[in-house]
Write a structure and sequence with these properties.
By secondary structure, the protein is α+β, with helices and mostly antiparallel strands. Helices cover 39% and strands 25% of the residues. It has one domain (25-144): FAS1 domain (Roll), CATH 2.30.180.10. The protein has helices at 2-19, 28-34, 39-47, 50-54, 67-71, 75-78, 81-85, 95-99, and strands spanning 60-65, 88-90, 103-105, 111-116, 122-124, 127-136, 139-144.
């Protein structure tokens, strides 16, 4: 009797799992495109061909400027690959790990600074992080209120 209940329970669980298809986690690019604060940055990455690099398994950390911050750039700056690469680094740097760092090297090769501001606020090159730890399948995104030159 116990054995048949276990079999029945197991078959119910399996049928439930089979009924619902596996949900794919979103990549960094998917998250950037679907977040209404970072759509322009996502488009610039695509236009510069950097999206292909970010489609790899990573992990990557992206400091994504808000659309408002990105609007302040010239068209030339928006298509500058090095400027865009200033916002990306290899590895997973969550807010917690960023607090233990003072500077990091981006994919452009530039070293950028991390500041711990008062009130537990973090800043990247003086650009406040407004939203942190947006998890993606191949890394993490932090939304910043400025652009890393």
């Amino acid at each position: 009797m116990k054995f048949s209940k276990k079999i029945l329970g197991l078959s119910l669980v399996l049928s439930f799992l089979i009924t619902f298809p596996e949900v794919q986690a979103q990549s960094i690019l998917d998250k950037l495109r679907s977040n209404n604060q970072t759509t322009q940055f996502a488009q610039a990455l695509k236009n510069a061909g950097i999206n292909e690099r970010l489609n790899q398994s990573g992990p990557f950390t992206v400091f994504a400027p808000t659309n408002a911050a990105f609007d302040e750039l010239s068209m030339g700056q928006k298509s500058d690959s090095n400027l865009l690469l200033n916002h990306i680094l290899t590895g997973m740097a969550t807010e917690r790990s960023l607090r233990a760092m003072s500077d990091i090297t981006c994919l452009s090769g530039q070293t950028i600074s991390i500041q711990n501001k008062s009130g537990n606020n973090l800043a990247i090159e003086s650009n406040k992080i407004s939203v942190s730890n947006i998890k993606a399948s191949n890394g993490v995104i932090h939304i910043i209120e400025g652009v890393i030159d």
